[in-house]
Every structure is written in C-alpha cells, then in structure tokens.
C-alpha cells in the first residue's frame, strides 16, 4: 500500500497543478491525470481525498504555511513547494489516516523528485516548524 500511496500523492500533486491553470473541477482533474498514469482505483480514491481536503481547508493550510515560512508566503513559493506543502499540511492536520513520519517523508521525497534537493530541504524546514508548532498547541 505504501507504493500505492506514493503514486496517489504524485497524482494529487499533478491534479492540483492542473487545477491552477484549468477551469475543470477537482474530480475531473484527478480523473484526467489518473487516466494518463494508469492509476489503480485505490490510488485515485486516496488522491481525490487529498485534493478535496487541500481545497476544503485551503485557507487554514495556507495560514499554517505562511506562519511557518519565515521568508516566503505560499503565493511566492515555487509551485512544487507550495503544492507539496499543502498536501502534507492537509495530511498532518486534517487527514488523520497516515502516520506523521510517513506524511513528512513522502512530502520531502515528492519535493526532491519534482523540484530538486534544495526543494526537499525547504519543505522539510517548513513542515518541521509546522509540526513543532502543533506540538506546542497540545496541552500537557
């Protein structure tokens, strides 16, 4: 299932890219990219949950990213960094079905794959600050 989830995250990343430049709906974007990749139904379903979650919680996700990124607002970030961060923050804060470490590692891997080593370090740093902030919010 881990490889399937990785492919689903790639699918969600590509579908969210598609939505930035196309007026089609989120389900259509996921189906279009999934068709091109030959994705399995479970991958499509997980990707759809990620895309829908990112869109539903977009303002709160971007607020968390903005607070954790000292020099860049989400609008100023590269598309890969911004989109990977949005997916990761959704999984960490709202998804609830993936272990924290898996969400972090997958996000860093996606950033490295689609934008390079430096992008992976950037995503790691921002997510580290978001996770640290969330830990401080939990009452002891």
Automatic annotation (TrEMBL):
Which keywords accompany this UniProt record? RNA-binding, Transcription, Transcription antitermination, Transcription regulation
Could you state one GO biological process linked to this protein?
DNA-templated transcription termination
Q: Which GO terms describe its molecular function?
A: RNA binding
Gene3D superfamilies named in the record: NusB-like
Q: Does the keyword RNA-binding apply?
A: yes
Listed InterPro entries: NusB-like_sf, NusB_fam, NusB_RsmB_TIM44
Q: Which GO terms describe its cellular component?
A: cytosol
What residues does the NusB/RsmB/TIM44 domain cover? 6-131
For whether the record's keyword set contains Transcription regulation, the answer is yes
Pfam families assigned: NusB
Which NCBIfam families does this one have?
Answer: nusB (TIGR01951)
- State the family named in the UniProt similarity comment for this chain: Belongs to the NusB family.
What does the UniProt function comment say about this protein?
Involved in transcription antitermination. Required for transcription of ribosomal RNA (rRNA) genes. Binds specifically to the boxA antiterminator sequence of the ribosomal RNA (rrn) operons.
Q: What is this protein called?
A: Transcription antitermination protein NusB
Q: Which organism is it from?
A: Candidatus Dormiibacter inghamiae
The coding gene here is nusB
């Amino acid at each position: 299932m881990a490889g399937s989830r990785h492919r689903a995250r790639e699918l969600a990343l590509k579908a969210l890219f598609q939505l930035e430049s196309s007026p089609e709906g989120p389900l259509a974007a996921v189906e279009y990219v999934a068709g091109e990749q030959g994705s399995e139904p479970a991958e499509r379903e997980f990707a759809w949950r990620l895309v829908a979650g990112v869109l539903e919680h977009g303002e709160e996700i971007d607020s968390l990213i903005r607070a954790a990124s000292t020099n860049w607002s989400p609008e100023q970030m590269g598309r890969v960094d911004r989109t990977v961060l949005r997916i990761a923050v959704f999984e960490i804060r709202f998804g609830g079905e993936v272990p924290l470490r898996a969400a972090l590692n997958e996000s860093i891997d996606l950033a490295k794959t689609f934008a390079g080593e430096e992008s992976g370090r950037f995503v790691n740093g921002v997510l580290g600050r978001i996770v640290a902030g969330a830990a401080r919010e939990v009452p002891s």
